[in-house]
Design brief:
Elements (H helix, E strand, L loop, with lengths): L3 E5 L4 E5 L5 H7 L17 E6 L1 E4 L4 E4 L3 E4 L3 E3 L3 E4 L12 E12 L4 E7 L15 E5 L5 E5 L9 E7 L5 H12 L2 E8 L14 E7 L3 H13 L6 E7 L9 H9 L3 E7 L11 E2 L2 H8 L6 E6 L2 H12 L8 E2 L2 H4 L5
Parallel strand pairs: 1-8, 15-16, 15-19, 16-17, 17-18, 19-20
Antiparallel strand pairs: 1-2, 3-6, 3-8, 4-5, 4-7, 9-10, 9-14, 10-13, 11-12, 11-14
Bound molecules: FE2/S2 (inorganic) cluster (FES).
């Protein structure tokens, strides 16, 4: 047996199958995911369509040829280069979105309007790789209404998730979510969502990270920082956290601890409306101004921005004027709010 090429119909992609390697093993070795269970030709869940080429199937024993043969990927090996169609094939790195019912293990108030909610994933959602740091989930209420929240804990926490939920009394949806979380033992969620995330293994050694968050956007930052620290990451991490009034900050001790224990983590609190915070002695103004004060160039910088469309696009405009390219910035905003003209 020799190496063969496997062309994946409809994806524009192909991969090399090792000599004697089953189609399923070759796909999984290359990071693809598809339905499979028994891995020995019995359950038939891994059936795919062979469009071109020839395979030998170990069980049930058969030699099969395209263009429309049904083949079990777990027991078939290639006798020629192949072209196949696989329903539900997941590309490498893309995680499956799951709907899960989680226990609400704790809910506590962190300041005057933000709650920390701790969720315990059921065993089916127990894999640490179920989401990437920076992704979000949707809470789905019993009436079907749903709202999105950044996951505020790192994937390394396994089945324990944390959310930071701000209660907006004027919003019926916000009130319904908080009341559900305060009064029910469990909640339905959909995760993971969002393409604004960071993987420690993919950050270049000379990259300086700027994590800019407004209000509870800090949850996304927290997930990313805890993921980086869990992976002994040593790139400079500059965190900018902006709120209107000083009493909007929460979890005060955590960023202090990061900065104390990790010299490469720099924390900046910024209050945008200091008139309402007479005791605030820290930085004031807009988050954009604070970043521009601290950075003279944006070479080798990657920015993750977590806030409203107005805040994110104002930051992008300001940093682009200083040489940053849009591809150096990530934000969930880019997926749902067009850039203002
Ligand atoms: S995984 Fe069960 S037949 Fe292939």
């Amino acid at each position: 047996m020799i190496e063969r090429t496997l062309i994946l119909e409809g994806t524009g992609r192909s991969l090399r199958l090792g000599a004697g390697e089953t189609l399923l093993d070759g796909l999984e070795r290359n990071g693809y995911r598809m339905r499979r269970s028994c891995r020995n030709g019995v359950c038939e869940i891994c059936q795919i369509t062979l469009l071109e080429g020839e395979v030998v199937q170990r069980y049930p024993a058969a030699t099969l040829q395209g263009p429309t043969a049904d083949v079990l990927a777990c027991t078939a090996t290639a006798l020629s280069d192949l072209r196949v169609e696989i329903e539900g094939l997941r590309m490498p790195g893309v995680l499956a979105v799951k709907k899960l019912t989680c226990d609400i293990s704790a809910i506590e108030k962190l300041n005057h309007d933000v709650y920390r909610v701790r969720l315990h994933l059921p065993a089916t959602g127990s894999l640490a790789t179920e989401f990437y740091a920076g992704q979000y989930l949707d809470i789905v209420l019993p009436d079907g209404k749903q709202a999105s929240f950044s996951i505020g804990s790192a994937p390394e926490m396994g089945r324990e998730l944390e959310l930071h939920i701000r209660h907006i009394p004027d919003s019926a949806m916000s009130t319904a979510i908080v009341e559900h979380l305060l009064n029910q033992p469990s909640v339905q969620i959909e995760l993971p969502k969002g393409d604004c995330y960071l993987k420690a293994t993919e950050v270049a050694a000379d990259t300086r990270l700027i994590l800019a968050a407004a209000s509870t956007g800090f949850a996304q930052v927290k997930s990313i920082v805890e993921h980086l620290l869990a992976n002994q990451h040593s790139n400079p991490i500059h965190i900018y956290w902006a709120v209107r009034s000083a009493d909007d900050f929460y979890l005060d001790k955590l960023p202090e601890q990061w900065a104390r224990e990790h010299t490469h983590v720099m924390m900046h609190h910024v209050v945008s409306e200091p008139d309402g915070s007479p005791d605030w002695a820290g930085r004031t103004g807009l988050i954009t101004e604070a970043i521009l004060e601290d950075f003279s160039d944006f070479d080798d910088v990657e920015v993750i921005a977590s806030g409203s469309p107005g805040m994110v696009y104002a930051l992008l405009d300001a940093l682009e004027a200083k040489g940053l390219k849009q591809e150096q910035m990530k934000s969930d905003v880019f997926a749902y709010a067009p850039r203002p003209k």
